[in-house]
Recover the amino acids of this structure.
């Protein structure tokens, strides 16, 4: 009887065009501005506080979001976290960017210490940390590269006319 029910439900889904459950939506968007600078834009509906850390291939951990009290920063959907662009050294290689969204401000120092203590553990996942309140984590990856050199343009005169060089 049980088998018949399962078969019937499966048939209904197949013939009714049931969709597979989709994976979790991105919590934030990484916008690379230059080879080694970027912004992180929270998606709609994210928790209102966040902390951002990078972890380089060479093992260096950096806290990107800083306040005077060393706690989470406010995160507004659709606006760059912290209202700034972040930069990572090209010499440190690829980085993982860990974004912690929370319903209450988190102590950044304690979280940084936990990340540092686990930096050599290949099985470590940021979600394994015990943090107060509701916390969700997204990890993004970035391969920094040298910034493009500035292009020297022509000298512009009155009325927008290009002046001869030399």
């Amino acid at each position: 009887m049980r088998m018949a029910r399962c078969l019937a439900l499966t048939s209904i889904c197949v013939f009714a065009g049931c969709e597979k459950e989709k994976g979790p939506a991105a919590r934030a968007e990484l916008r690379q501005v230059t080879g080694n600078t970027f912004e992180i834009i929270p998606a709609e509906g994210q928790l209102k506080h966040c902390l951002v850390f990078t972890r380089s291939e060479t093992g260096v951990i950096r806290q990107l979001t800083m306040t005077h009290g060393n706690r989470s920063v406010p995160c507004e959907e659709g606006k760059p976290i912290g209202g700034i662009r972040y930069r990572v050294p090209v010499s440190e290689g690829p980085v993982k960017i860990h974004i912690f969204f929370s319903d209450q401000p988190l102590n950044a120092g304690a979280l940084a210490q936990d990340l540092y203590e686990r930096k050599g553990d290949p099985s470590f996942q940021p979600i394994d940390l015990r943090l107060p309140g509701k916390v969700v984590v997204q990890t993004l990856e970035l391969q920094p590269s040298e910034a493009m050199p500035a292009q020297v343009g022509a000298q512009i005169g009155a009325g927008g006319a290009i002046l001869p060089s030399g």
In short: The beta strands are 28-32, 37-42, 49-56, 61-63, 73-74, 86-87, 95-102, 135-142.
